[in-house]
From TrEMBL:
PROSITE patterns in the record: 4FE4S_FER_1 (PS00198), 4FE4S_FER_2 (PS51379)
Residue sites binding [4Fe-4S] cluster 1 per the record: 186, 189, 192, 246
Name of protein: Epoxyqueuosine reductase
Keyword Acetylation on entry: no
Chief localisation class: cytoplasm
HAMAP family: QueG (MF_00916)
Metabolic or biological pathway, per its Swiss-Prot or TrEMBL entry: tRNA modification; tRNA-queuosine biosynthesis
Keyword Iron-sulfur among record annotations: yes
Source organism per UniProt: Subsaximicrobium wynnwilliamsii
Organism placement in taxonomy: Bacteria, Pseudomonadati, Bacteroidota, Flavobacteriia, Flavobacteriales
GO biological process terms held by the UniProt record: tRNA queuosine(34) biosynthetic process
Entry's localization field: Cytoplasm
Functional note: Catalyzes the conversion of epoxyqueuosine (oQ) to queuosine (Q), which is a hypermodified base found in the wobble positions of tRNA(Asp), tRNA(Asn), tRNA(His) and tRNA(Tyr).
NCBIfam families: tRNA epoxyqueuosine(34) reductase QueG
């Protein structure tokens, strides 16, 4: 049995690599004991702002066996999105993760292929694929399976590649060989905390989501509170500040996923272009992008907020 667990685990990791994933780690599907009080406290402090969905499915969020019946293993995967080229200087900025095709589609397809390969190789294996759209604590699972540690900015960090990657999971009903968590390498560094213009990182490892630029520019549907005027440093969709200043991201290398390449117009657009953007241009540049989530009106609102 031990041999087959080991053999299956190695197969899954090799297959993940073949599909272009950066890395793959496996942990036992069980209740996340350490995360429970942390999540409860975070919700109690209203750090989720108007992201009401964070309050739903509390039990499922902490226990994958409640989410996927009969599950035994959580297979965590990382996919690099660090771009080769970034936007021109002095423009309104889009978070790097949203440059290309919406990652939900790209990763979902890879996960389906991975699950099919597992079923072909191993036999009847049941499970579900998750890409940040269900109550799964992605970062906690990735850390538990040894893919990195959760940094002071609350993102997953890896010594070799930093933090510019997506996290996804397959939760399956197959027992596998489990990996172990790695140690924290943030040390005494506080660069992410010091650099956050809205002081959203309220203490090391704790982010008040309701103060985060990403929250204001993507999740918040109403007007952005005026007290944050002048603090966004030109970010109009998402924000990469805490990742950009992190010393571990010196090691980020450009991704090799053609679907993540930006629309050519995106990188060269100036502030004036953004201020005058039409619905047609928005649809052309962000045809399949995650930026569609904020919609044309939302992006206009964000640009307007940055202009004044």
């Amino acid at each position: 049995m031990k041999d087959s667990k080991s053999k299956y685990s190695q197969f899954i990791k090799a297959e993940a690599k073949r599909l272009g994933f950066l890395s793959c780690g496996i942990s036992k599907a069980e209740f996340l004991e350490e995360e429970a009080p942390r999540l409860e406290r975070w919700l109690k402090n209203n750090a989720h702002g108007e992201m009401q969905y964070m309050e739903n499915h509390f039990d499922k969020r902490l226990d994958p066996t409640k989410l996927v019946e009969g599950s035994k293993s959580v297979v965590s995967l990382l996919l690099n999105y660090f771009p080769e080229d970034t936007q021109t200087e002095n423009t309104f900025k889009v978070s790097k993760y949203a440059y290309g095709t919406d990652y939900h589609f790209v990763i979902k397809d890879k996960l389906k292929t991975l699950l099919q390969s597992i079923q072909t190789e191993i036999g009847e294996v049941g499970g579900r694929a998750f890409v940040d759209s269900a109550p799964v604590l992605d970062k906690a699972w990735a850390a538990k399976s040894g893919l990195g540690w959760i940094g002071k900015h609350s993102n997953l960090l890896t010594q070799q590649v930093g933090s510019f990657y997506f996290i996804a999971e397959l939760i399956i009903d197959l027992e596998l060989e489990y990996d172990h968590a790695v140690t924290d390498h943030c040390g005494t560094c506080t660069k992410c905390i010091d650099a956050c213009p809205t002081q959203a990182i309220t203490e090391p490892y704790v982010v008040d989501g309701s103060k985060c630029i990403s929250y204001f520019t993507i999740e918040l549907k109403e007007n952005i509170p005026t007290e944050f005027k002048g603090q966004f440093e030109d970010w109009m969709f998402g924000c990469d500040i805490c990742q950009d200043v992190c010393p571990w991201n010196r090691f980020s290398k450009a991704h090799s996923e053609p679907l993540f390449n930006p629309h050519p117009d995106l990188l060269s657009m100036t502030k004036k272009d953004w201020e005058e953007i039409t619905k047609d241009t928005f649809n052309k540049v962000f045809q399949k992008s995650a930026v569609k989530r904020t919609k044309f009106e939302g992006l206009k609102r964000n640009v307007e907020f940055l202009r004044k």
